[in-house]
Amino acid sequence: MDRVKAKKHLGQHFLKDESIAKDIADTLTLQGYDKVLEIGPGMGVLTKYLLEKPVETYVIEIDTESVEYLTTHYPKLHGKIISEDFLRYNLNTVFGDAPLAIIGNFPYNISTQIVFRTLEMRDRIPEFAGMFQKEVAERICEKKGSKTYGILSVLAQAFYDAEYLFTVSEDVFIPPPKVKSGVLRLKRKENYHLPCDEKLFFAVVKTAFNQRRKTLRNSLKTYNLSDNLKEDSIFDLRPEQLSVEDFIVLTQKIAANGI
């Protein structure tokens, strides 16, 4: 229990239900990669099931006590424990150009940052799966028209097929969180390169949703839209009314307008 208290500042809740851990490990399709990186393994409840898979399992863990525990109890991880912060770590250091899947029971307080970091490395990551706060998992998988549809939804679904898989009760954690958890899987699209300027696409999506109550005509003023372009009916809409494909078209229109 002391270890649990020590890690509360990391936003970590330890999964104690073995069947849930196995179910999370089984979300991986094992297609398109032969290496898996688990983020924040803690004491290895998920790790043990990943090690049974026909892939090379690596873990990345910033907590020194957890690293010591994993080193002692999981000899199969010898040479495959990365004692670093995933958000700042260069994957090339260990994996070179090899593709890999990301998985984990993600700390709630950095889970969205983990998704954004994964999107930055989408060329390397054909699959991403794991457990989030339920609301965050639902948001990532949400479709247009919902109040929870937002930046994460659009950016994740632009490059990955997002699937909400199952809900996890608070009771299976030590200490129990105050909210339910949700498990999702992102499978990279076969053609995940967008037919528009991808850097501009990210910027347009973020700018639009930062003022989500406004129409695009007002929220995207910073792009100095021409009077002719501003008359386009797409600018009458609010960001939650646009699908990923609509945002691609919007980005193309803004790029053609000149920025």
Write up this protein.
By secondary structure, this protein is of the alpha/beta class. It folds into 2 domains: 2-188, Rossmann fold; 198-257, rRNA adenine dimethylase, C-terminal domain (Helicase, Ruva Protein, domain 3), CATH 1.10.8. Helix content is 36%, strand content 17%. It contains 12 helices and 9 strands. The protein has helices at 2-7, 18-25, 47-50, 64-73, 92-95, 111-120, 134-141, 151-159, 198-210, 216-219, 227-230, 244-257, and strands at residues 14-15, 35-39, 56-60, 81-82, 101-105, 127-133, 160-168, 173-174, 181-188. Strands 4-3-2-5-6-9-7 form a 7-stranded mixed beta sheet, with helices on both faces. A two-stranded antiparallel ribbon has the order 1-8. Helix 6 (111-120) links the parallel strand 5 (101-105) and strand 6. The longest helix is centred in the last third of the chain and has 14 residues, at 244-257. The chain is elongated. Mean pLDDT is 92; it is low at 1-10.
